[in-house]
Design goal:
Strand order of the largest sheet: 3-2-1-4-5-6-7
Bound molecules: uridine-diphosphate-N-acetylglucosamine, uridine-5'-diphosphate
Order of helices and strands: EHEHEHEHEHEHEHHEHHEHEHEHEHEHH
Radius of gyration: 19 Å
């Protein structure tokens, strides 16, 4: 069958890396890159390092307001869907590229499969929450990563077509960890040793677009006095400059890094401070304590079993967690068995 996959943002390239090559063993896949992320270190580096098949189409939509960005994607996607006539459209996660990919298919009565369905923050102000809810409700096949995601869908009356396959990002870490150990020399490059630094990422709109929240985060990192490595998302770089915020000498700012360097940094960090969805999960996979600088998380299991502490953007809560948070319990298996990609293939085969 012909599967048309839509990706556009960094975490979607990583998720597709875990699934595309498996689907291609048995099916024709057409890969569309919307161009939502376009800098080399936000896009091309992942295709090169992770051997993701080259996109058949790059829409080069770029940045913009939500309506403008999503609308432009819809216009271009529709032309391709009409030409390619896929049997199924596959989308990942919760970005504007996810929503555009799914909505365009739904309007043309093409079935949609959503990987990472059912996640909820219950914060409707998040663009990601809007994208997820809308995408889930127009998808025929919903691949959920956790039992919580399955319950969330049930609470919204969505039970048909729901399959708990585990998390594709777990597949990706298991698959690329060895390659990262072989290829990444990021620690030598930055002159740090294992376990002597805290890894941080910040990019969530609710943090960057609010001067007070971003200021609190930067000041908490400065005041922690810990060595902090911060690969900076371009969105955050822009707002830090606009607000005139200053990082302390204890903070090493890097450009956003590729996935192999990123998982090496995660493997060697003492703790991880993040507002990223993917990085919260990867902290768990690497057995690292995670401090989440948000008011809520979708990955509630990591909090419930004590490996993730949600601290919001209160300065003292962040510094206390950086200095003192230690998980007290053993990890449990909450993200499946690392074979989500194969399960996705088998389920698609059983339906079509
Ligand atoms: C998007 C997703 C978010 C996801 C994140 C992954 C939406 C609504 N948000 O957020 O869910 O967690 O990707 O990283 O889809 N920029 C560049 N170069 C790039 C890409 C972006 O400079 O290659 C800058 C631009 O100033 C742009 C800003 O970053 O305006 C935000 O980019 P955008 O794709 O709109 O949202 P993200 O914050 O990346
Ligand atoms: N990541 C990366 N380089 C970086 C920061 C993150 O490769 O500089 C990877 C990270 O390991 C994870 C994914 O990007 O696999 C998470 O994406 P992001 O934080 O941008 O988005 P989210 O998961 O919050 O949607």
């Amino acid at each position: 069958m012909k599967i048309l996959t839509v990706v556009g943002a960094r975490p979607q390239f990583i998720k597709a890396a875990a699934v595309s090559n498996i689907l291609r063993k048995e099916h024709e896949e057409i890969l569309i890159h919307t161009g939502q992320h376009y800098d080399k270190n936000m896009s091309n580096i992942f295709f090169e390092e992770l051997q993701i098949p080259k996109p058949d189409y790059n829409l080069e939509i770029g940045s913009g307001n939500h309506g403008e960005q999503t609308g432009k994607m819809l216009i271009e996607l529709e032309k391709i869907y009409l030409k390619e006539k896929p049997d199924l459209v596959l989308v990942y996660g919760d970005t504007n590229s996810t929503l555009a990919g799914a909505l365009c298919a739904s309007k043309l009565l093409i079935p949609v499969a959503h990987v990472e369905a059912g996640l909820r923050s219950f914060n409707n102000a998040m663009p990601e929450e809007q994208n997820r809810i809308l995408t889930d409700h127009i998808s025929e096949i919903l691949f959920v990563p956790t039992t919580t995601a399955e319950k969330n869908l049930k609470n919204e009356g969505v039970t048909k077509g729901v399959h708990n396959v585990g998390d594709v990002m777990f597949d990706a870490v298991l698959h690329f960890k060895k390659l990262s150990q072989e290829k990444s020399n990021i620690l030598e490059k930055i002159g740090l040793k294992s376990d002597e630094f805290i890894l941080t990422t910040i990019h969530r709109a609710e943090n960057t677009n609010d001067k007070n929240r971003l200021k609190n985060i930067v000041e908490a990192l400065n005041e922690s006095g810990e060595k902090i490595v911060l690969p900076l998302h371009p969105r955050t770089k822009k707002y830090v400059e606009d607000y005139g915020l200053k990082f302390g000498k204890n903070i090493m700012i890097l450009e956003a890094v590729g996935y192999l360097d990123m998982i090496s940094l995660e493997m060697h960090a003492k703790k991880i401070v993040t507002d990223s969805g993917g990085v919260q999960k990867e902290a768990f996979f690497m057995g690292k304590p995670c401090i989440t600088i948000r008011d809520e998380t979708e990955w509630v299991e990591t909090v419930e079993i004590g490996w993730n502490k949600v601290v919001g953007t209160d300065k003292k809560k962040i510094t206390d967690a950086i200095l003192f948070f230690e998980p007290k319990s053993e990890q449990q298996n909450i993200f499946g068995d690392g074979k989500a990609g194969e399960k996705i293939l088998n389920i698609i085969n059983s339906i079509f």
